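batch_manifest entry 22 of 60
target: Pleckstrin homology domain-containing family H member 3-like
source organism: Enhydra lutris kenyoni
requested by: lab member K.T.
priority: normal
notes from requester: please return tokens only, no post-processing; we will run our own comparison against the previous entry in this batch. if the run fails, retry once and flag.
--- input ---
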Amino acid sequence: LQSWEETRSLIPEKGPPEEDPDVVVKGWLYGEPRGGGARPWLPPRRAWFVLTRDSLDQFSSSGKGARRLRSLVLTSLCSVTGPERRPKETGLWSVTVSGRKHSVRLCSPRQAEAERWGLALREVIASKAPLETPTQLLLRDIQESCGDPEAVALIYRRNPILRHTSGALYAPLLPLPYGVSAP
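--- output ---
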């Protein structure tokens, strides 16, 4: 027989974790609706957010049976901007978390709360092991093999995108250090 603790970990919980040691910060914030930049007339909705060591989760309420609205897995490729005040749009302080494909904007009426969430998100992301995108790995292989023309030719043969692309190659969301703007 398995102990109650082992069994509990095998059962997926529907609501936010109540007393999970992995929880870094949790609380009520305003979340911008998906595609918020495309629909600025929709006001931010109040939701329960839980930041763990692995993800940022948004729930409909803070109760046990709350429905998970969305989740963003945090990796070393994620970045955080803000907090910044948006007086014309919402009048709230916002912190934006950007992943490789999705972004989540957290809004709060209080600057201190927005700063607390921004700092916690940055600490979680900084604690992650560095990841390399396939494009970064390919570029590194080419740089390491630049002295051997046969090795470079082999890399070009195995990666048709290098032969059939007339324009520059762009790596998907290379992480930028905090406080440094893109060129």
